[in-house]
Structures are given as structure tokens and as C-alpha cells.
Design a protein that fits this description.
This protein has 10 helices and 5 strands. It is α/β, with parallel strands linked by helices. The N terminus is likely disordered.
Length: 194
């Protein structure tokens, strides 16, 4: 999957580090001008996983290469409650992938190492493993406890707790003995949401 990044950046010199837009508004303007998607990182001061994302994922060359064809921006959403509410940020870090018009494609809730981060972003750009993709797949296979669990996590990361609870309950109903390994986590998710 890394080949997509390498091929798409041929002819353009990769920057030595990510050049971050100065604000979300500037990122929207740049994305429209360049017809590029946006990676918006919502972070909070004192968040150890935000710091790890900064120090390991965003400094890795494979992620820096993404910046050749994408606009990157940071938002301190704990202080900016308007942004936190607008994007329904459930926790930090949250990375939202937006199209060039500023519409959400999907999000990463929590920390991912560089390789998984790049793969996830590339999947999202292709419409794979997004909320909409998972919903379609679950409708086609409503007995898949793993898909139900992934959907629950997607909804939880959007502060859509009613929907998250519904899917966590489906996981437990579909796999009451935790044979697939998600029911115990689903029960924990339900307890946390209460």
C-alpha cells in the first residue's frame, strides 16, 4: 500500500518535515486551491499519545511523504471548544481526514504508529474501512461481530454514544462467549459509555 504514496509523489520533492497550515481556515483554503485532502490533528496539551503521535508518527518519512499531496493542520481542541463541538471530538488525539471541500471522510481516534497511520489514510482515501464502508458491509453480513465492534468504535470516536452502545450490544449478542475476542471489550465499552 505504501506504493501509492511513493507513486503519487513522483516528480515532487518530499519535504524534510510536515509543513503545517497555520489554522483550520487556512487549511481549507489551501485544500481548495490545491484540490487536496486535509489531515487535521486535534490534540490537547498534556496528552501523552498526542506527543507520541508528534514525535514518532508525524516525523516518520512515510507520513511526511503524505504531506506532498495533502494539507496538514493542527487544532488544540481542548481550548477551542467550538472546534471540539463542531467535530464531535471524543478524545485526544483525533485525526480527521477531510476532502478538499472540508467534508469528513473518516477519522482516527487515538494513536497509530506511522505504518498503520499511512495504511489507514490510504484506505480511507479509497473508501475502505470508513464508517460508510463498514455500515454497508455490516448490512450485507449482520452476523459479523468484528464489523459490529469496528462500527461501535467508529461511533464512540464521534461521540455518537447511542449508536456505539447499539453496536456494542450487537457484538455481545452475536458472540456471547467471546470466541472472536471482542465481546469483553464491547462490555467494557458499554460500561464506559454508561
Amino acid at each position: 500500500s505504501l506504493g501509492l504514496v511513493v507513486l503519487s509523489s513522483c516528480g515532487k520533492q518530499a519535504p524534510p518535515e510536515i509543513r503545517w497550515a497555520s489554522s483550520l481556515e487556512d487549511a481549507f483554503q489551501l485544500a481548495l486551491e490545491k484540490d487536496q485532502p486535509i489531515i487535521a490533528e486535534f490534540w490537547s496539551d498534556g496528552c501523552k499519545w498526542c506527543k507520541r503521535l508528534e514525535d514518532s508518527t508525524f516525523t516518520h518519512q512515510s507520513v511526511i511523504d503524505l504531506a506532498t499531496n495533502m494539507v496538514f493542520v493542527k487544532a488544540e481542541a481542548k481550548e477551542d471548544t467550538i472546534l471540539k463541538e463542531r467535530y464531535q471530538i471524543a478524545g485526544f488525539p483525533t485525526v480527521i481526514l477531510l476532502n478538499s471541500s472540508g467534508e469528513e471522510i473518516d477519522r482516527i481516534y487515538g494513536y497509530l504508529p506511522a505504518k498503520e497511520f499511512v495504511t489507514t489514510i490510504q484506505d480511507y482515501l479509497q473508501g475502505k474501512n470508513t464508517l460508510e464502508d463498514l455500515k454497508r458491509r455490516f448490512e450485507a453480513n449482520p452476523k459479523d461481530a468484528e464489523l459490529a465492534f469496528q462500527l461501535a468504535e467508529k461511533f464512540e470516536g464521534r461521540r455518537m454514544y447511542k449508536e456505539a452502545s447499539s453496536y456494542y450490544n450487537k457484538v455481545v449478542d452475536l458472540d456471547p462467549r467471546d470466541e472472536k475476542g471482542n465481546s469483553d471489550d464491547a462490555l467494557f465499552g458499554l460500561a464506559w459509555l454508561k
